[in-house]
Write a structure and sequence with these properties.
By secondary structure, the chain is α/β, with parallel strands linked by helices. It is built from 11 helices and 11 strands. Strand 3 (about 65-70) and strand 4 form a beta hairpin.
Length: about 325
């Protein structure tokens, strides 16, 4: 398994990906929905990643409790299926996200990030499959029209299929559309964090893939620097972030689902910048981090971000996994 990281000379913030006005409106809608959801008392017995019963309180966000697995270090919300479904079925939030204004703003802010993702996918496909054309792509959960068009426009994409997306109400299949069966490539980007049963979902994805097919996977991590330091003040929100795995947790889940991990990286670039702008939210007894944020100059903070990337401790992970070719008999 390969590990990689990107060196950065700066500490960008989320404004590079989101217009503050749109983000605040989206957050306001989400918080109103969470307030209206009836929260049933839930007895969480084990970690959804490693199934350990050694769990402890991590934080509360909007009256939703987050728990910490003391074995694999995964963080997850103590919520039930009915609550999650209530949130997902909110028409106000869905209509806001599929609006032309929201989609256009996302395309403007995320164009560079989408191009980086396209390069990541294209290079790894050639590395592991030895070809970059004539492939069937399954895109799961993508809610951005702009990124749909980026993927459909890749030279490697022959057939494109979009699944489990709020964009199902839009006509996005005029070109390179239609699934021809099981996929050569599956994109499951920033989606597992919304899953109550991550292993079940990964097994479902595995069944949709051809032997030897690649899974491109990304997620927020429970072991990420800004999440662990800022806790409820970090950008994790019920019920957008239900499951925040650790590296160990993801290795367990992917292995049990049948996948082989080819690459694991935490190329996140915003951890240090995010914490540096919220020093008042750092725990009073965390003297080291408070001192680092107060006294570290631009160079020192960039070097610390580099350490987080290289050591796998950034809050954003990218994984390339593969369905073994030897599983032909299971098809």
């Amino acid at each position: 398994m390969l590990k990689a990281y990107d060196y950065v000379e700066y500490s960008p913030d989320s404004s590079s990906l989101q217009n503050p006005q749109y983000f605040e409106r989206e957050l306001e809608i989400a918080q109103d929905i969470v307030k209206q959801i009836y929260k049933r008392e839930k007895k969480t017995c084990c970690c959804p990643a490693c199934r350990s019963s050694r769990i402890s309180h991590f934080c509360n966000k909007w009256k939703v409790e987050y728990l910490h697995c003391d074995d694999c270090e995964t963080i997850f919300a103590s919520v039930g299926r009915e609550e999650v479904e209530q949130y997902r079925q909110s028409e106000e939030l869905m209509e806001f996200r599929i609006s032309d204004e929201y989609q256009q703003e996302a395309a403007q802010k995320r164009e560079i990030t989408w191009m980086e993702s396209a390069d990541w996918i294209t290079f790894r496909v050639f590395r592991y499959l030895g070809k970059n054309d004539g492939l069937s792509v399954l895109d799961i959960g993508n809610r951005y029209e702009g990124f749909v068009n980026v993927v459909k426009g890749l030279p490697l994409t022959k057939d494109y299929s979009l699944k489990d997306s709020i964009l199902k109400y839009k006509d996005l299949f005029n070109r390179n559309s239609g699934s021809t069966g099981k996929a050569d490539i599956v994109l499951y980007l920033n989606q597992i964090q919304q899953s109550l049963k991550p292993l079940e979902k990964l097994r479902e994805i595995y069944a949709d893939m051809k032997p030897g097919a690649l899974l491109f996977f990304s997620t927020r991590m429970g072991t990420g620097f800004d999440v662990l330091i800022l806790k409820e003040h970090s950008k994790i929100f019920p019920y957008e972030h239900i499951f925040l795995p650790s590296k160990k947790g993801m290795e367990i889940l992917l292995s049990e689902a049948g996948f082989e991990i080819r690459e694991y990286a935490t190329p996140g670039r915003m951890d240090v910048g995010t914490v540096a702008r919220q020093t008042d939210k750092i725990s009073g007894d965390n003297y080291f981090i408070r001192s680092l944020m107060k006294n570290g100059d631009r160079s020192a903070l960039a070097e610390f971000q580099r350490f987080l990337q290289k050591s796998g401790m950034s809050s954003y992970a990218q994984i390339v996994a593969q369905k073994p070719v030897s599983c032909i008999s299971n098809q």
